[in-house]
Amino acid sequence: MRTGAPFFLLLLLLAACAPQRPPIPPRQPAPAIAKPRPVVPPAAPKPVWVAKPVIADAVEVPDQRYRVVAGDTLRRISDKTGASSEAIARTNNLASPFLIKVGQTLTIPGGRYHRVRGGESGIAIARAYQTSWAEIVHLNLLEDPYVLRTGQKLRLPSSQQVAAMTLEERARAFSLNIDDLITGGEPAVEAEVAAAQPPRTTPAAPVAPNQPVIAADISGRPSFVWPLKGKLLSRFGPKMSGRYNDGVNIAASAGAPIRAAADGIVAYSGDEIAGFGGLVLIKHGDGWVTAYAHAEALLVARGQPVKKGDVIAYAGETGSVDEPQLHFEIREGRKPVDPLKLLPPTA
Questions:
Q1: Cα–Cα distance, 170 to 167 (Å, whole number)
Q2: Model confidence at 344, in pLDDT bands (50, 70, 90)?
């Protein structure tokens, strides 16, 4: 009996009726876990100006007498003799507008004179000649707002005086303070710009591109707010140690935002004063300046307009402090003022 074919058919039938296993899908790669992106503070804009190195090429001018000729002006006499026109005017008691007459004999004060070039600041000039900015201010009777002109001649200490300085005096000459940055940190401007600057009593912001309107109260003083909320660590005034605090110190957590206390223009952003660490100075018009020190990160650049409440830095413990904090000052011109008298009652 032949059974092969039916048996083969039966096997096919049973295979067809058996349950089919679903195909195994291909393995998918595990989804990637997105890593948090680091928070990067916004890049500060480029400074309005870049300080230029000072060429120390001062000219030694002897004491002399000069007889005025036709066509002379005080500026022309300055160019002929090498002395500054301001020094000539003071020595000869000339009053503005500095009228001189043909045949008049002028006394030319001798000394060492530096001609200011564009981009030079008072601090940079002082350092180039190894003297202090305060000494240059004294020798030239410079006054607020301490604007230098291109072409202006500054009288300097003599080479002999500089050579005779002790190591301690040289160290003091190269040290900086906030007053130096306020009065000697501005770059020289063209003579026409200097002449067009508003009077000191005008409540306007310093000259800068896209200059903002500065908010002020009825007295013309800027309306200040607290730059940081925190416990007061040190108040304004003399301390038991004999030191004097020109502002207030406010406790902060590391990285806390520091905000501009009023509208203004950034006058300085850097760390050149070792005791203050990261430091920002803001000019608010009419001579008012605020200072923010010990920052761990600076977010603004010189010449940048800022509005009240803008974040300008992050708090830290840079400089001469051992815990995160903000040293905050308000100055009217060069004079420090107690911030607690000008800020709202509470932070």
A1: 5
A2: very high
The reply to whether the predicted model has a pTM over 0.90 is no
Mean pLDDT of 92-106: 89
Whether 250 and 228 have beta carbons less than 8 Å apart is answered as: yes
| Nearest alpha-carbon partner for 200 in 332, 14, 57 | 332
CA of residue 36 relative to chain centroid, distance: 34
Domain with residue 190: its CATH number is 3.10.350.10
Which DSSP string corresponds to 98-144? T---TT-EEEE--EEEEE--TT-BHHHHHHHTTS-HHHHHHHHT--T
Where does residue 303 fall: left (phi above 0), alpha (psi -120 to 50 degrees), or beta otherwise?
left
Give the DSSP per-residue string, 73-107: -HHHHHHHH-S-HHHHHHHTTPPTTT---TT-EEE
Q: Which residue has the tokens 């001189």?
A: 100
187 Cβ neighbours under 8 A, 6+ residues apart: 49, 51, 118, 119, 120, 121, 148
Say if residues 201 and 138 touch (Cβ distance below 8 Å): no
> What's the rounded Cα separation, in Å, for the pair 110 and 2?
139
Q: CA 113 to CA 39: how far, in whole Å?
A: 51
Number of domains in the chain: 2
Question: Which residues pair with residue 293 across a beta bridge?
Answer: 327
The arithmetic mean of pLDDT across residues 15-28, rounded, is: 60
The structure tokens 């001609």 sit at 115
Decide if 223 is inside a domain. no
In degrees and rounded to multiples of 5, residue 64 shows phi and psi of -160, 170
User: pLDDT, tens digit, for every residue of 201-258?
Assistant: 333 334 343 444 444 444 568 999 999 999 999 999 998 877 899 999 999 999 999 9
DSSP class per residue in 215-274: PB-TTS-B----SS-S-EEE-SEE-TTS-EESSEEEE--TT-EEE-SSSEEEEEEE--SG
Stronger pLDDT, 322 or 15, i.e. the higher one: 322
63 and 191 inside one domain: yes
Q: Is residue 218 part of a domain?
A: no
